[in-house]
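Hey, I was hoping to borrow your eyes for a little while. For a while now I've been wondering how a particular protein folds. The fold is given in discrete form, as structure tokens running alongside the sequence. Could you read through the record and tell me how the tokens relate to the sequence? Take your time with it, there's no hurry, and the full record follows here:
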Amino acid sequence: MKNKTKLMIWVIIAVLAVLVLGLLCYNIFAYETRKVQNPVATLEVENYGNIKIELYPEYAPNTVANFINLINKGFYNGKTFYGKDVNAIFATQNSDGSLAEPTKSLVDSSVQAGTEQDTKYQINGEFVANHFNENTLKHEKGVVSMLRQEYSSFLGLTEQGYNSASCHFQIMLDSNRNLNGVYTAFGKVVEGLDVVEKIFAIEEKPAEVKEGEEAPAQDETSIKQLATPAVIKNASVETFGTEYPMPEIHEAFDYNAFLQNYFTQNASAE
């Protein structure tokens, strides 16, 4: 009788051990194979509606981290879609028409806002031409990509131009193969493309022409200012429980200071 009791106890222990081990293996398998849902940003555009953008960290992880951080810090609230070209609409300007520029205090908690240390920052471009081969996202309708400066036409400042993005972005209304591999595409509109089209349809602001001068020639690459910029009333992002790190940043390249220094050095050499 005692032997039977001991046997039953060992059978129960063995069954429990198998169940515990099975549950542990299942949880490990579920964790390793779980599908992480991409974050979704929502831009509430005053008088137009909402634009929802699925963000793609698999293509541009640091750009997505920067975008999420700026949204969470309220940076985009009150900013505007201010212009367009033949393919896209552009953000981000302040309500007074000046370009918005993020500063280090939005990323580094040790930097106090408004101090001398709170200077402008930029991020590296995540695209093939900048040695980031993971980003194969094409610039097609609905795709969102970062705007940056193009300094390469002057003294070959290619690297500075490639790494000059900060917060400004565009939403494509048509495909543009010329941007593939040289601009950071990092998301796509999944809801509210009709809102993007309504903003794109806003009348252009007439070009300012001084008396006696002709209006500047316009081509497909010309940025046309919107007569009435569309205001981003509120921006938010759903990360579905995933935490994204602070972005890697660097000091913003001061193009105007570079030019001043360049011409000063050349003038003194003559």
In short: Residues 30-34 have pLDDT under 50 and may be disordered. The longest strand covers residues 224-238. Helices lie at 2-33, 61-72, 158-162, 193-200, 255-269. Residues 208 and 214 are 10 Å apart (CA to CA).
